[in-house]
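re: that chain from earlier
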Amino acid sequence: MHLSTHNWMRAEPIETTLARISQLGFESIEISGEPEQYPVPVVRAALKEYGMKCWGSVTLTLGDRNLAAKDEAQRAASVDYVKSIVQYAHDLGGHNVTVVPATVGKVIPDSTPENEWQWVVEGLQEVYTLSQKLGVRLAIEPLNRFETYFLNRAEQAIALAEAVGPDCGVCLDCFHLNIEEDDMLGAIRSAGSRLFDFHVADNNRMPPGMGALNWAEIVDTLTDMGYDGALTAEVVAPVDRTPVSHWPDQVETNPVDISADQLKFIEDHGSSLLSEEFYTMLAEETAKTILPLIGKGR
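^ sequence. v structure.
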C-alpha cells in the first residue's frame, strides 16, 4: 500500500499540490477529473519533476453529470464525460478511475429504481468497454445518503460492479462507510478482490487520526485482504465560522480561479476554499497517521 491524495479539495496549480505531498511521503495523486483544468502535458511534466505517480482519476459528478438521469441526452453526455476521464487517466499512466454514478448532492430520484439501475448499468458498460481496451480499471464508489440516493453501501456498489463486468471493481471511503455500514470492517472485507481503491478521511472528514476511527484496525483489515493499492486522502475539512474555531486562518483570502460548479461542489460538502497553511496541515496529519501503519513511517 502507499499514500495518495485527491486534489479537488483545494483549487491550486498541480505543481503546488505535488510539491507539498512529495515532501510528506505521498507517492501518487488521484487527480481531479477535470482535464481542461489540469491538462495532460502540464500534469505529466509536474509528475516527472516531483517524482510522483498518477494513481488514477475520479469523476467529479457535478452539474448535469448524471448516469441515472431521466433525460437520454443528459445520460449520453455523462457517459461521454466518464469515458473522457478514463482516457485522461490512461494518458497520465493511471490505473483506476473512481466513478460516482449519480450527481453528488442530488437526493431526489429521476425515475423508478429499475429504470435508473438499468440506465447506469448500460452507461457504465459502455465506459467499461473503453476502460478494458485502455487497461484502466473502473472502481464504483458509494457515498452517504446525504450526498446521493443512488448508492450508499458497499454491497450496492459490489452488485453494480458485478452487473457491469467481471473486471469492474469498487472504491470504498471510510467517511461514507462510517455513516452507512453497520460493520465497517466487514463491509471492507466483503469487497474482496473487487476493491480497487480506498479513500481515507476520519469520521468528521478531517485527516485520519483527527477523529474517532480506529486506523490500525482499518489498515490491518486491508493488509489481511491483500489490498496493495493506494490509500487516497479525501479530507474535506468543515469550515468553522464561529468564535470558538481552532483555525482562524482556515479560509483562503486570495482564491485562485475556480469554476462556479466546482466552488458549489466544495461548499456543498460543508467546506470552502481553504488556505494553503491549513491545507498543508491536513496533509501533514494524514501522513503522520497513515505512513507508520503501512510501514513507511517518516
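The longest strand covers residues 53-58.
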